[in-house]
Structures are given as structure tokens and as C-alpha cells.
Amino acid sequence: MTPEEILSTPARILSQAEREAYFDKGYLLVERAVEQEWLEALRRSVDALVERSRSVTRSDSVFDLEADHSADTPRLRRVSSPCDEDPAFWQFLIRSRVGEILQDVLGPDVKFYQSKLNFKWAHGGAEVKWHQDAPFFPHTNDAVLTCGLYLHDCDLDQGPLAVIPGSHKGPVFSHYREDGSWSGDIQPTDLPQVHAGAAEYLHGPAGSITLHNYRAVHGSKPNNSPRGRPLLLNVVSAADAMPFTFNPLRSQYAQQIIRGRPAREAHLLGGRRELPPDWSGGYTSIFATQQSDKPAAE
User: Fold this and answer.
1) Of all helices (H) and strands (E), which one includes residue 51?
2) Which residues face 236 on adjacent strands?
């Protein structure tokens, strides 16, 4: 569905003004969208994953670790595919009111692509440089977004998501260096077009969700506060948006419909799209790529 078609259908949760703001800016913050019961269940699951990470000594297909991670002081950058690691994460996606919010900006038929749990650990959690999601997992159309959930209060000191207004209407920038290697961020020669000074920082109380279109330019500053910032991220799309390339975050739920019905046709946009590297051999996270740990992916 086109934005015009989506906006012509009745809203379920969001106001019409909020829906229009999403399509105009390319993102939306919905404060306190998630009920306390879900937050408490998800926090317990996150705590269990952190506890499990104490026995992990190097990054693997599930845990992406900071360099100073240890059993005594765990420090994570990411848990990949948390929906597959604890059923609470999948149940949240298919049963909570977030599904109806997603329908308000993607149309009635919504499909799952991937999930990740990004951490910005207290006292130095890593920054994420300016980038777009579209270069990491291009689809046949642009009805693709990432839904973030703040599991705890998140303020400006904790490195909240920052997005450039209207950048989803501009170009999809290359995320390759001049030598042809993948960097996972927008190149220095293109950064003047980003207008980083216009960025809006989407901070809010626990239970707030962020929605950003996969063409929107976004990033986040380091977390230099004494409070950690776990952020649950679910990438979803309209059912008629089909991925071009291998999904490196393998999941038993990949391409499952979470609201509505499967598509009988693919919605195709014209033009050309640069393809990401082949990550079918595995990877860790965007943090590893941008900080040059080793080849990795969003």
C-alpha cells in the first residue's frame, strides 16, 4: 500500500496527526505505548539473557560483547534474534497493542523480518554512526520500518535514537568505503548532505516506542551516563514488501505475518538499489562493523 492508501484507512491506535507525522518526517515517538505488564515480562527476559551471557567469552551468533565483558561484569552490545531466545519477545510482538500501531503506518497486513536487542551499557556504551537501514536489507518497496521499545526510561544522556527529519525522502547513501569494503555507515563525502544539526533525539519514559522508516538517516551517541539503555528492536514490513537479499539474523519467525494476511502480490518500486555484502556465512552486529571489529551487518 502507498502512504496515501494507508492514511485513507481508519486508524486503530494512533491519531491521524501522528500517522501523517510519521510519513512526513520518516519517524515517530509514541510515549508510554506499552503496558507495564509487558515491560515487566520483557525486563525479566532481558535479565535472564544478561545472566546467560556471563558464561560467554567471545561474541557469537547470539551475543555481541563489548571488549571488557566478563562473567563478573557483563557488558553486551547486542543479543541477536531475541524472539528465538525467549518466547516472551515473540509473544509481545504478536499479542501487544504494538501490532495495531504498526498497522496504522504499514497497512493491515504486517510481516516480521528480524529482531535484535541493542544495549548501550552504562559508562561508555558505543555510539552508532549515521546510517540507513535500507542498504543493509533492501526490499522491493519502502514500507519497511524498525520499531524500538525503551524498556526503561531513556534520557538524552543515554544515547537515544536520533533521526534526521525528512531524510527518508532523500537518497539512499552508499555504506561502502572507496576501497569497496563495507563500513556500515554513511561515508564522510556524503555526510554534508545529512544535515546532522537538524537531528531529533527520540527519548522518553519506559514503554515508549520509536518507529523509523528504513530509509531514514539515524544514529545515536555513546551512553556516558551511569544508567544502561537496552532497546528492543523489531524490523517489520508491509506484507507486500519482499527482501532482495539474505537475512543475516536467522529466525524461525522470518517472514511470518503478525497482523492481517499474507500478500498475494509483491509491491515493486522502480530504480536501482545497491546491495549489501553476502553475510550468509554469519556476522555479529552494526557495532562490530562501524568499530572495525570484523566484517558484520546491521
Assistant:
1) helix 36-53
2) 112, 145
